[in-house]
Amino acid sequence: LLTHATHRLRPAFFMSLDVGITRSPPLMERRSLARDRGLPAIGFTEPKASITLEDGTELVGHSFGAPVSVAGEVVFNTSMVGYPEALTDPSYCGQILVLTYPLVGNYGVPSETAMDEVTGLPMFMESHKIQVAGLVVSDYSHAHSHWNAATSLGDWLKAHNVPALFGVDTRLLAKRLRTKGAMLGKLEQAGEHVEFDDPNKRNLVAEVSTKEVRTYNPSGAPHILAVDCGIKLNIVREFVKRGVKVTVVPFDFDFTSDSIEFDGLFVSNGPGDPTMAEATVTHLRTLMQREPPVPVFGICMGNQLLALAAGARTYKMRYGNRGANQPCVDLRTTKCYITPQNHGFAVDSASLPDDWQTLFVNANDHSNEGIIHRVKPFFSCQFHPEACSGPHDASFLFDTFVDQVRGCPTRITTVPPSMYSRPTLNKVLLLGSGGLSIGQAGEFDYSGSQAIKALKQEGLEVVLLNPNIATVQTSKGMADHVYFLPVTADTVEKIIRKERPDGILLSMGGQTALNVGIELHRSGILERHGVRVLGTPIDTVIATEDRELFAEKLKEIGESLAMSLPATTVEEALAAAREIGFPVLVR
Description:
Elements: H1 2-18, H2 27-36, E1 48-53, E2 58-63, E3 70-77, H3 83-87, E4 95-99, E5 103-104, E6 109-110, E7 134-136, E8 139-140, E9 149-151, H4 153-159, E10 164-166, H5 170-180, E11 183-189, H6 204-208, E12 214-216, E13 223-228, H7 233-241, E14 245-250, E15 264-267, H8 278-287, E16 296-299, H9 301-310, E17 313-330, E18 336-348, E19 356-362, E20 368-373, E21 378-381, H10 396-405, E22 427-431, H11 442-457, E23 461-465, E24 481-483, H12 489-499, E25 503-505, H13 510-522, H14 525-528, E26 532-534, H15 538-545, H16 547-556, H17 570-580
Parallel strand pairs: 3-4, 4-7, 5-8, 7-10, 13-14, 13-15, 15-16, 16-21, 22-23, 22-25, 23-24, 25-26
Antiparallel strand pairs: 1-2, 1-11, 2-10, 3-11, 6-9, 12-14, 17-18, 17-19, 19-20, 20-21
């Protein structure tokens, strides 16, 4: 089946990559190619549909959502998972979303009617409906399987009257958008036509913002007033989880009047151009003049609105940042956090007034990722610390804000001294992955070769142990000395005695190198020869390799662990599987 699927997808991939054709091969052509190869006639029964960009690029695929045609701004998201959360994010209002991960829909969609007992909000969604104008994926999984699934992605889209397209080269689309920037586009069903439409000319915030005031956890404290510019529901959940009372108000609600009392102000994420939310900016500017100041925290568009209220400028990015793995550096500590993001506008850091400064910066494109007032309790971030569906690196910002509102002393953040206590090294031994067939474990070769380059850039002499001759890292000009010998403790000790390295790198050779490193550590060989383990500490390696020890470490930090049982025979494995409950993972 996988072979057949590969043959079905390969023509579209190579045609777009090698000859620049922007249309996927038609259904009959794919069937003809399959027949020529002696394969079953694999094709699609779904009606045809197309995605057209304003530069003339057109890709033809097949519809799996509602049979309607739409227009909007075409953007792409690089996340591997989290499409239910992304599709219900109000920040995507008016946009046709391209998911770059190739296989989408395999875990279905969770229930929309399952409600959180504390807040009464949908448990698995970021709003009460699908917000995107349309969806484009490479390969749609018609058969979904997940314990939490209530329906398929296609049926969910149809229920919300949202069109979707599959069977097109999303890699080509993403490259086109990265090269030329975000563009207008239209997703059209066969025989239907719509005109291009720019959603950024509309006040999208007004379209998605709540029309009524609603309070969550009314008995909680302190009281946070949340300005809804398109708020993601997990933001409310994060606040309520911290025991506070949250009142969500429309984007144009006048919170400077005496109509409502609150202890801290939160400004949410939202879609489109932040300058459209003029009412919010005006009210923010007024509130920030109060003495004593009311703490203010903003996320995503909240970051942009806070900057506008302070007197700074915003601008439209080339193609924006949308995904779950954007690295952001905290300029107080230089610590880097992996963050989820969804925005097409950003703050111009150079335009910030003197009493404001950049708090976070994107490590990839150096765009602004947050601002902070030098004296007053005002700060914001461009990324999403509420992180649904993850990661959760920056969730501490909610604690920071709530502590400010409660009047707790500001926590001191400093650069860790370890940054300036670098060991003196001259020569490093790097362990490869051991004996493998050609073509296996390419990730070890890649990581090892990059490690060699990094070490040599630091002016270090590199000794490599790797029995695989057909690798990049063993090529001429990479390591200073290469030993084509088995990766064993005995071999490594002999090399240590001969080469006298100061450090050893274990984490680039997979299981073989890690096991050898543990053996060398426990036998005292590394300590006896004064060889320091670089990268992942050896105690951490031991803790993660020992299943029972790893389980204890997870319990220490309150993380759950899947039930597991060992087995040495088929009968024992079947008994263990019955006790755990199917489905099970066998390794």
